[in-house]
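Quick note —
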Amino acid sequence: MYVCTVMSKYADVALPVPLDKFFTYAVPPSLKQTVRPGVRVYVPFGKTRRLTAVVVKTHDDRPDGYEIKSILELLDEERPSVLKIQLELLEWISKYCLCSPGDVMKAALPSGLRPDNTANSRPYKPKTERFVRLGAKAVTNGKVMPEELFDNRQTAQKELFLKYLELAGYDEGKTDPQPVTRRYLASFNRSSSVMNSLLEKGLLDSFEVETGRLPVFSGTTRPPLKLSSVQQDALDKIRSAFLKKNVCLLHGVTSSGKTEIYIHLIKEQLEKGKQVLYMLPEIALTTQIMHRLQNVFGNEMCVYHSKCPDNLRVEIWNRQTGPEPYGLVLGARSAVMLPFSNLGLVIVDEEHDSSFKQEDPAPRYHGRNTAIMLASLCGAKTLLGSATPSLESYANAVSGKYGLVTIAERFKKTEPPVIEIVNTAELRRKKYMKGIMSPPLIERISKALEKRKQVILFQNRRGYTGTVECPDCGWVQKCDCCDVSLTFHKNRGEAACHYCGRRYSLPPACPSCGGKEFRGRGYGTERVEESIKNLFPQARTARLDLDSAKSGYETILTDFQEQKTDILIGTQMVSKGLDFNNVSVVGILQADSIISYPDFRATERAYQLMVQVAGRAGRKDSEGVVIIQTKQTDSMVLKMVESGNWDDFFNNLMQERQLFNYPPFSRLMAVFVKSKTAEKAERAAQEIAKRLARLFGHERVLGPDAPLISRIQSMHIRKILVKYPLDMPINLSRKKFMQAASETEAIKGLMNGVVLSFDADPQ
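Predicted structure written out below.
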C-alpha cells in the first residue's frame, strides 16, 4: 500500500490534528536517504507550531497551489516507529470510523513519541540509575588498602567505603569490582556528606546508566496445566476451526476454563516464534490474568493499556519495533494499536463487552473489530471468547463466517449457581422490606459469612444517591452544563455530574421553594456499602467502582482474591471475567435499572450483565446462589437468565433485530450534531438527515432526535442513526457520509458553531 521511493523529494505525513487529510512536506537533501514510511519527523505547522508527524508515503509529485514547507528533523534514526502493517491498520480505522488520520495517529502513539513545541508537551525521558565504582585514587600499586586511605577521624567514610567493597565483591587481586547503585550504598549511611566526601576524594566514582522501566519477572515459570477432557476437546476443535476459518468464537459458560485453553494456544504460537495479542475489556482484569500468564510465560509477556505511565508505554512501544519484541502482549483495547512484526494469534476475551468500544474522543473504534482486522492484515488467527457472546459474533458463527466451539459445562463439572428472583415490589407492599436488601438476600449473606464464604453485590450506579431533591416542591439538583441530575457522593460531601465531571456543593436551601431539607432518591454503591456495614458490622467490606478504583483497584481485587475481604460491592467492574474461588452468594440489587433502558441493545446487555455477574458465584468447589432483586418478575430477560437457555434467547432477539433491521442485519453509523444552541443543532441535523436519507434511503435513516441526555458540556446534541447494508464497501459508505457532510457544510452560515462527528458501530 505504501511505496517508499529512494531519494524521494516529498513526504505525505499524518499530523495529530483533526483534519481529514495527509499533509505534504519537502524532504531536505540530507534526509532523502532516511525518510521512509513509518518514521517520525518534526515539521512546522502554521506560523509557530512544531509538531511530530508520521510519514505514510514518499513520492516525487509536487503539490500545486501552495508553498511546500520542509521537514525540520528526523526523529527515528535507527528504525521506523510505525510498522507497515500498522500504517495499513491505522488507515483502515480512519476510513471505517470516519475520522482523520491524525486522530488515529494521536490515539495510537504514546504522547512521549509525539513531542511538540508547546509548554504541555512531555517528551520521553529514559530512566537512569546512578552507580558508583572504585575511583582511581583508591588504588595504589594495584591494591586497595583502606587503612591508608582514612585517618582515625574518618570512621564513617571508612565504614561506607568498606561496605562498598563488600557489596561490589572486591577481593585483593581484583582492582575492578562491580558497580553498586548509589542509592543502595547510601542507604547504609543517612548522611549525604559521607558519600560526597568519598566522591570528592576520588575514592569512588559516580556514573549514570540507562536502566529502563520495563518490569522484570523474577519468579519461576511452570508449564501450562493439564487440560480436562472437555477443555482438550474444545482446544482440538479450535485448532480444526482455524484450518478453515480466520476467526473462531469460543462460547463457553462461565467458569468453564477458557483461560487455560488460551494459555495452551499462546504457548503453541510462542514456540513457533509468533507473537500473541491477548485483549481484555477492563484494565482491572489485567491484574488477575497477568499473574496467571506470568507464571507460565515470565518475561515473554508485557501489559499495555492507557493507564500505564506514558514513559513505560514508550519503552514497550520501542521494544515492539526492535529486534526482540515481546512475544505476548496483554492489554485493553489500546493494545491493538501496538506494533506487531510477527503476529500469529489475537485473543479477544469477553468479546461481548461494550468497554471494547472507544466513545470519545475520536477515533471511535471497536477493539474487537479492529483486532480482527489487525489479525487479517498480519495473516494471523482471531479467537473470540465469551459466555455471553454479542449477537453479531454469534450470528457470524452460526452462519459459518466464523468457526464455533461450545463448552456447555463448568470446569470439573461444578454445578451452576442457583438463581432466585425476588419480587421487591411485593415485599415492600407487604412491608417485609424497607431498605436496600431483601430478607432472602440478607439471609443468604448471613449464611455465607457463617461458612466463611464471600459475597459479591452488584449495583450499576456509583455514588450514594442517584438524585438530590427537595421533598417539598420536587426540585432536583442538576448540572449547569449537562441535562442530567447530579449524583450525591457522601464520602466527598458533594454532588457530581458523571458526564462532564463537574462537582457541586449542596445548596443551603432549595432555590425553588426555600426548603431547608433535601433527600436522596435511588442508591449507589456508597449507600450499599453503608447499608452492609450496618447490617453486618463484623464483615470486612470493600467497594469497587470508578471512584474507589482510582486509589488502587489492584489492592481491592488482590485483597478479595486472598480472602481478606468478605463482601465486595461494585458496578460492572465486578462482572467481567474475574475468577474468585470462594464466592457463594451474588446479589444483583436493582435489576430493573438494567432492563428498562431505551435502547435496542438493552435486552442483550441486561442478559449478558446478569449472566456474567451470576457467573462469579459457585466457581471451583463452592456452591453458589444468585439473588436477583426486581419489580419486573415477569420480564423475558429474567426468565432467560433463570433458565440459562442461550439458544432461545438468541433466537428471540434475532427475530426482533431482523424485523427492525438492526445489527447483525445491518451496520450502524450514529451521526452526532452538537452546538451551544439547541436551534442551531436542530437545524443542522435536519439538513444532514435529508441528505443521508437521499443517499442511503429514507427507510434506513432514523432521526434527528434528541438523545436521552441531550446536552453535555453545554453542547446541545442531536442524533441521526443510519442503518446501511452489511455488504456496502467501506469506501462507498464513507463516500456517502462525507458527501452528506460536505453538502451540509456548504450551506452558508448553517454550520457556524456546529460540531459534526461520526460513531461507527455505536454501542
